[in-house]
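Minutes, project check-in
Item: structure for the 303-residue chain
Input as provided by the requester:
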Amino acid sequence: MKRSTLLLVVALAMAASSFVAFAQNSAPAEQSGNPSPAAATAIQTRVENILRNLYAWGSDIEIQAGPTSPSPIPGLYQVPVKVTTQGGSDTAIVYVSRDGRYMFRGEMQDLDSDPLAVTRSALHLDGYASKGPPDAKVTVVEFADFQCPSCRQLAYILRAILPKYPQVRFVFKDFPLDQIHPWATTAAIAGHCALRQSQDIFWKFHDSVYDSQDLISAENASVKLAELAAAAGADPSAYQSCMVDPETAEKVKSSAEEGRALQLTGTPTMFVNGRRIVGPNQNLLQQYIQFDLSPEADSTILP
């Protein structure tokens, strides 16, 4: 499920590719390298203030900017901004000129590098459930939460789509949203215990959890998940031993940390050969798959 706070993404997108002028009486930033502590504090305070003023964010919305650091483009600092409200949060990066006068929000791309290759290199797939050929030309990686209704919707979409593309590899990774889904981590651990026994058992378990999602609660999750694993073919004794094995929980934790490093804001999030898709977007998923399977994709690969 997408996190509830989309205010930052929506608001800052309105300022994308345009400059917002600060007042000119601020303390100037350093002209090279990292800003001084005083300059960094001044920049962060002014970023918070101008965003709050521009978008009328009241005291119920927390804005936290910083730390300020040099950006890849000379003459600019980059400042991460986190907005929190109603128990959810979202983050983005704004860029500020070295003199502290201008701020803008937009995408930065180095034309000498392939951003998709960078993303692909950050995705670690060993030890996670997959289907399709290991050497596939197209790999779809999903970060999901078993308790997430939008992930269930995507699961139904994938059941219809993936059989049409047997040459595509699909990998399932964990990103349980514990703050809003109390049994998601337990289900993720259970999924790995099913996977330890076989890929086939995992995928049967995967489908049955989404099919039974409305019947599972924080109170009955342990029992229900064990029942679903057994129905999928898992050996109950091996399953129970796996559930208390610290290495199983560590696998889920590693996947979630990887998702946060990739700046995931919610589930489901997919990467199709490195291209990000947020939400159960069937049309975009098929567009990306079909493009990467086409000869045209070979001619557009960056150096």
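Outcome recorded: The two ends are 36 Å apart (CA to CA).
No further action items on this chain.
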